[in-house]
Amino acid sequence: MRAGQTALILVLAATGGLCATGCGPPQPYVRYDGNHFGRKAKPVDDMEVLRAGPPPAPARYQDLGTVEVTCPSQMAQTFGGAASVGGCNYHWAVRRACERAAEAGADGIHSIDSAASGSGATVSLRASVFVRLPRRVAAATPTPPQPKKAEPTVQERLRQLEELKKEELITPEEYQKKRAEILEEI
What we know:
Blueprint: H1 3-15, E1 29-34, E2 48-50, E3 61-70, E4 73-78, E5 81-86, H2 90-103, E6 108-116, E7 122-132, H3 154-166, H4 172-184
Parallel strand pairs: 2-6
Antiparallel strand pairs: 1-3, 3-7, 4-5, 6-7
Helix pairs in contact: 3-4
């Protein structure tokens, strides 16, 4: 190695332009603080992402907890001064939050709050993890008992029987038999 190359490597190393293994910001990580309630994991692609707030009314939901994605960054010296190194892409952080929430059996995340470094990279993202609840079923209101239709009186039944006989809808034998039954009830 020539003296010029050695000097360039030393300058780069001193200014942060060359980094040995292990230097730089720590790796991103995801932490979930919440419950599972025995729910099965869901496909991450089925997750709902509501950035601004919780599910709108009349939706019923319950928060399970929070998920936090941390993408550390640090300042590094460069030839032009200092620059922020590390952080992650916002969409990558949302995806990781959804993956962790899906493992907990959640239906989605909401109320996303994020912070960015000076270079615009996301350094932290926090969101509430929620499940949708079934719609409430209104309690069945008992139907009031229908008032029984008043039974026709003996006189009304005999008149009706007489009309059936006049219109020849029943035979004289059927008339006599039914008339006897009605009179027997008195």
